[in-house]
Design goal:
Blueprint: H1 2-17, H2 38-41, H3 48-66, H4 70-91, H5 102-119, H6 122-135, H7 151-167
Helix pairs in contact: 1-3, 3-5, 4-5, 4-7, 5-6, 5-7
Amino acid sequence: MLAWVGLLWLLEAVDAKTHHSLDTFGIVPREIGELRDIIPAAFIHFGFDHVAANSIPLFVLGFLAALRDIGRFLGVVFVIVLTSGFGVWLVAPAGTNTAGASGVVFGLFGYLLIRGFVDRRLLDIAVGLAIAVYYGSILWGVLPTAQGVSWQGHLFGLAGGVASAFLFRDVTSVSTR
């Protein structure tokens, strides 16, 4: 997670040095050519304040999600990035440009929140409840309350995280009754 967060900061430094040339990798809705930017958009930010806002929650939630199985974690993140990015592409206002790791942050929040219930693991339920207490206020970010903030990316990221809890459930821990 340190490497991932470091990469985000490095990319933002390159973006700043090149007069924001990487911002073109954000998602502009409903333009077919922009579908190729769904994955890179999760790594690009619009300024150092933007990457700073995502860094700590991404590090903490990513670390907790990756603890058990790095392969599952990578699959979860892939589903979240695709779901969040495609959701932005479908429903964000025309002419906007959306980028940032906040869709992943919301997705990891959703994944950790319900993973324990899906897998029926008490420790993961406890982690999910702790995450809900500590980070639960981010749920306001799925509402269209702040100008210039992609609630669409947040909402679809959250949906991708919840879906990932089911897609990547630990079938060995679930009772077969």
